[in-house]
Design goal:
The chain is an alpha/beta fold. 43% of the residues lie in helices and 17% in strands. α4 packs across α6 (125-135).
């Protein structure tokens, strides 16, 4: 059986990314520069034959996937599915507000004076998630148990399905914090400082129920597409 190699991409830059607003389950379209970077990424991956493609069900992830596949040598033949389990975190009532506002509230919930103090203290994904849950006045945000379970089972099921169908290279498009959390769940040494840029590629291998991380947040692929 061919090994399963996952090309995990963060969606292209959106309106809310550009405006520095909180964007979890709410959704905005890719900007012109966001589209251009993903088109570059598609060209950088154009000769990579994907056995299958998956994305979250958010519009920005769907748009990103279609742009990548439109540049791909066999993109029109690639089976494509969406999975809501690999959505971004849900930020509840904090959705749509400015990033600075949310990241001003979360440290205070955790008894830190500033965001920098919180990060320096090596605050965990679990602590940040639970602080969001506490700060959310709409009661929509997820507990860490709910969030981590949906993220891990989502990626595991995608990888297992790909392996069962013969393996090969698989394109998966998801979101910044979701990808970072997934990497942490694989290896706890990956912490909240992980840099996952829009359009970056995180490459993993899946075999016998185990993920192995080979590359995190690589910009090489979209840079290659510019050439």
């Amino acid at each position: 059986m061919t090994k399963t190699e996952i090309y995990l991409v963060r969606h292209g830059k959106t309106m809310f990314n550009t405006m520095q607003r909180v964007q979890g389950w709410c959704d905005t379209p890719l900007t012109t520069s966001g589209v251009e970077r993903i088109e570059d990424l598609g060209r950088g991956l154009k000769d990579t034959r994907f056995a299958a493609a998956f994305s979250s069900d958010s519009g920005r992830a769907i748009e990103t996937t279609r742009l990548i596949l439109s540049e791909n040598v066999a993109g029109h033949k690639t089976p494509y599915h969406t999975d809501q389990r690999i959505r971004e975190w849900c930020f509840g009532s904090l959705e749509g507000g400015y990033d600075a506002e949310m990241w001003g509230v979360i440290p205070r919930v955790l008894d830190f004076k500033t965001y920098d103090e919180m990060i320096t203290a090596k605050t965990t994904f679990e602590e940040i998630c639970e602080a969001i849950y506490v700060a959310d006045t709409a009661n929509w945000a997820e507990t860490y148990e709910t969030l981590s379970t949906r993220v891990m089972t989502g990626f595991e099921d995608i990888a297992h399905k790909a392996e069962k169908n013969g393996g090969g290279k698989v394109l998966v498009v998801s979101h910044g914090l979701t990808i970072a959390l997934f990497l942490h769940l694989i290896n706890q040494e990956n912490n909240v400082r992980i840099d996952i840029d829009n359009g970056s590629v995180t490459r993993l291998e899946y075999e016998n129920g185990q993920f192995t991380i080979h590359e995190i947040g690589s910009r090489v692929y979209y840079e290659r597409g510019k050439e």
